[in-house]
Amino acid sequence: MQLQPQHKLCISGGHVFDPAQNIDGILDIFIENERIVAIGSAPQGFTADTTIDASGKKIFPGFIDLHSFLAEPGFSQKGSIASETKAAAQSGFTTICCTPNTKPVIDSPAVAALIQEKAKKAGHCTVLTLGALTANLEGEQLSNMSGLKEAGCVALSNLDLAFKDSHVIKQCYNYAAGFNITAMVTPIDNALAHGGCMHEGPASTQMGLAGLPVSAETSALAQHLILCEETGIRLHISRVSSARALNMIIDAQQNGLPVTADVALANLVFTDENCRGYDSLMHVTPVYRSEADRKALLAGVNNGQLSICSNHLPQDRASKMAPFSASEVGINSLDNFMQVLLSLVEKQELTLSAAIKAITALPAAVINKKLGSIVVEQRADLCIVDMQQASSVSSETLVSKGSNNPWIGKTFTGKVTHTINGGHLVYSA
After folding, report:
1. What is the secondary structure of 93-126 as a DSSP string?
2. Residue 407: is its pLDDT beyond 70?
3. What one-character-per-residue DSSP string does 392-409 give?
4. pLDDT band for position 1 (cuts 50, 70, 90)
5. What is the distance, to the nearest Å, from the Cα of residue 418 to the centroid of all Cα atoms in its chain?
6. What is the sign, positive or negative, of the torsion defined by CA atoms of 361, 365, 366, 370?
7. How far is 182 from 17, CA to CA, in rounded Å?
8. Of 62, 33, 60, 61, which is closest to residue 46 (Cα–Cα)?
9. What is the rounded CA–CA span in Å between residue 96 and residue 295?
10. How far apart are CA 310 and CA 268, in angstroms?
């Protein structure tokens, strides 16, 4: 969808809900070009070129995703920036953080610029790049951190890939702290992981699959937290999977460390018990853990301690045709992110306020952007949701090129009807 010419837009009669601003009521929103110019009453002389009637619907700040694999450049069989950001806009996302594991890796300003250029051309979402923390994500040599920051990278990440040793981590954190840029990591001790493909517990034992213990996450996390304390780096722990890891992060925060964290949406939904049946759609990283872990992560979101990311990783059909442990990891979670999130609210596992804050204000703070809230004079990134409309997921409705969606066949209540990015309507149902 092409961007529309700039103009004056009014969203009328909607229920504006913004936890960060404590806004919860029926209000009109007035937008001129890319910014909100008034909430409630129209500015003097304002005449809308376009009016969207949002009566009976909720208006939220545009959603922000801290972890999406957009498959381009290098993986055209799995997706493209255009296809994946279109799927994101359909779920109410206006800002996406693109992971650096493209081909070539985002470890040079040229690759970051290429991705941002393609995203602008597609026109669905704002794409912010996560630069590689180490050259080619190999965990040995530092990347060109200053160049990546100048090219617009909002953080540097090594994903869950191994570092050569702890000295390399410390070097990375020292330099990143010097450039005042956040480091994002998903801690994993590969020796303790020992090739595990699902949570180590009764289910993995009975299924005869190699288990991945919680200690593989927590032992590595301890190392990162120690080095965070020593270097002063702003550290974001991406895709926390266990209660024990969450408790360690909360302890670190209470001790004054500049640490934030997020959890993947699917880890709030599934547990290791869902892996029974050897469905390769349940083969993900981080792995789905126990019900006690899932409930602890839900509590972390409700308490405002965790953002929620999509952990979107589109795969073609062939990638998931192998046996469970041999299949490629990941799911397509952008197509129906909002519906799944609302299902957790409907089951009263999350409050609506916590759920929205976890995908708006909290991730905005992580990347240090004035986004994620509905504020006069700030960027008009919004989405409108019909909370009562039923919607079903089928292979025909998927917009992402990823066929690996575990919710195909499900029906949800709630649907995004409009997404507005920088004052432009980029999606309407």
Report:
1. EEEEEEPS-SSS-S-SHHHHHHHHHHHHHH-SSE
2. yes
3. E--TTT--SS----TTTT
4. very low
5. 20
6. positive
7. 29
8. 33
9. 27
10. 11
Q: Cβ(315)–Cβ(332) under 8 Å? A: yes
Q: Are 341 and 359 in contact (CB under 8 A)?
A: yes
Q: Which tokens hold the place of 61?
A: 């700040």
Q: Amino acid identity of 6? A: Q
| 183 phi and psi angles, rounded to 5 deg | -105, 135
Strand partners, 132: 157
| Cα separation, 375 vs 413, whole angstroms | 28
Q: Which of 326, 387, 418, 303 is nearest to 53 (CA)?
A: 418
Q: Quote the CA–CA distance of 204 and 325 in Å, as a whole number.
A: 11
What is the spatial distance between Cα 311 and Cα 67, in angstroms, rounded to a whole number? 5
pLDDT score, position 249? 98
Q: Would you say 10 and 29 are in contact if contact means Cβ atoms under 8 Å apart?
A: yes
Q: Of 8, 28, 75, whose CA–CA distance to 315 is shortest?
A: 75
**pTM (predicted TM-score):** 0.96
As given in the structure block, the two tokens for residue 369 are 């952007």
| Cα angle for residues 242, 344, 62 (degrees, 5° grid) | 95
* Separation CA 214–CA 243 (nearest Å): 9
* Residues 68 and 334 sit within 8 Å (Cβ to Cβ): yes
Task: In whole angstroms, give the CA distance from residue 111 to residue 73.
Answer: 9
**123/117 Cα distance (integer angstroms):** 10
Q: Write out pLDDT tens, residues 358-402.
A: 999 999 999 999 999 999 999 999 999 999 999 999 999 999 999
Q: Do you know the residue count of the chain?
A: 429
Integer Cα distance of 196 and 191 in angstroms:
10
Residue 259 pairs with which residues in a beta bridge? 235
Evaluate whether 364 touches 64 at the Cβ level (below 8 Å).
yes
Measured on CA atoms in the order 88, 333, 408, 103, is the torsion positive or negative?
A: positive
Closest to 10 (Cα-Cα) out of 50, 38, 70:
50
Q: Are 157 and 133 spatial neighbours (Cβ–Cβ below 8 Å)?
A: yes
Are 197 and 203 contacting, i.e. CB atoms less than 8 angstroms apart?
no
Q: What Cα–Cα distance (Å) separates residue 144 from each residue in 115, 189, 291? A: 17, 26, 41
For residues 236 and 186, the answer to whether their CB atoms sit within 8 Å is no
Closest CA to 179 of 144, 205, 206, 216: 144
35, β-bridge pairs: 32, 379
